[in-house]
Q: What sequence folds into this?
């Protein structure tokens, strides 16, 4: 039975599970192994490499519906992504096949009603598989790219959220048909009741899974998108600044030419003084003008003094 309280990092993990045994599957999805003794949630998570804040956010949301604020930037996206991936694997590879086998074993093999019920189950299972595999092929790789600092203009979490279909009602019709219209003897009825329990629990699991995605994962991705976008803008600005700085950096040879110009030398005199061609002097002068946006000797003189290329006292009277 669930104990409706907010669990904290210093609560014992065993107490959390004892109060809410349905969270056992959640432990596995987070990659938390059993055998943790009387250690606290914080201690267990730290030892097993799980972000405790994100773990508790999911736990408290599933147990009593307490969702973190959309602006909560403490949710670790990588942790919750791993949790969702593992949950998919549990559901697709174990839960769905297990329920089908129990349902098949319960139903009469030669009965047309039983065949239709299995067919109905397979249709619903296929819809859920399609939903989860879309996330695995589209949403999850997108989030992984964001974690690497990569952006794309073709997709965002808003597109996912807008088309995030509700899978929680997939088994409602199946449950109703079984309960209302499938007569069984006592032994089969016991087996069927056990299977129905699994279907009901499965439906609750799907509801929790969908709500965690919508109320915790999606807001965390939006914050990550914003962060990556801001970092991208900052990076581009820094690139521009560095580019401008590179463009304005005057080479050592260009500094020599500036000194010569300030001293009143002609292009020919500069060429002879520096042992270069006149054409090379002209090219350097053009580059100096472009970089510094200075075209006069007076301007170059000021630049030379300001950058300690020449001694100001040489111009003092």
A:
């Amino acid at each position: 039975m669930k104990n409706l309280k907010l669990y904290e990092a210093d609560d014992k993990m065993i107490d959390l599970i004892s109060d809410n045994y349905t969270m056992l599957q959640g432990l596995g999805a987070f990659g938390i192994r059993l055998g943790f003794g009387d250690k606290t949630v914080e201690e267990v998570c730290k030892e097993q490499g799980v972000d405790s804040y994100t773990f508790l956010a999911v736990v408290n949301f599933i147990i009593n519906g307490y969702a973190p604020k959309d602006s909560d930037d403490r949710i670790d996206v990588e942790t919750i992504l791993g949790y969702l991936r593992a949950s998919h694997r549990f559901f697709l590879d174990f839960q769905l096949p297990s329920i089908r086998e129990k349902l098949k074993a319960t139903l009469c093999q030669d009965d047309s009603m039983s065949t239709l019920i299995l067919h109905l189950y397979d249709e619903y299972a296929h819809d859920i598989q399609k939903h989860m595999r879309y996330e695995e092929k589209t949403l999850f790789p997108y989030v992984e790219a964001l974690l690497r600092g990569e952006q794309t203009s073709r997709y965002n979490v808003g597109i996912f959220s807008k088309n995030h279909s509700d899978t929680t009602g997939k088994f409602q019709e199946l449950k109703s048909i079984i309960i209302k219209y499938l007569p069984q003897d006592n032994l089969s009825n016991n087996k069927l009741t056990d299977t129905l329990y699994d279907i009901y629990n499965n439906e609750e699991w799907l509801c929790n899974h969908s709500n965690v995605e919508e109320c915790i994962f999606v807001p965390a991705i939006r914050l990550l998108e914003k962060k990556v976008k801001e970092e991208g803008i900052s990076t581009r600005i820094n690139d521009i600044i560095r580019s401008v700085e590179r463009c304005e950096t005057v080479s050592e040879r260009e500094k020599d030419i500036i000194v010569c110009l300030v001293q009143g030398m002609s292009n020919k005199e500069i060429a002879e003084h520096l042992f270069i061609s006149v054409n090379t002097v002209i090219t350097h002068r053009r580059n100096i003008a472009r970089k510094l946006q200075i075209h006069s000797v007076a301007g170059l003189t000021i630049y030379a003094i300001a950058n300690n290329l020449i001694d100001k006292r040489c111009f003092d009277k």
Summary: Residues 3 and 19 are 5 Å apart (CA to CA). The mean pLDDT is 86. The longest helix spans residues 186-248. The chain is about 70% helix and 0% strand.
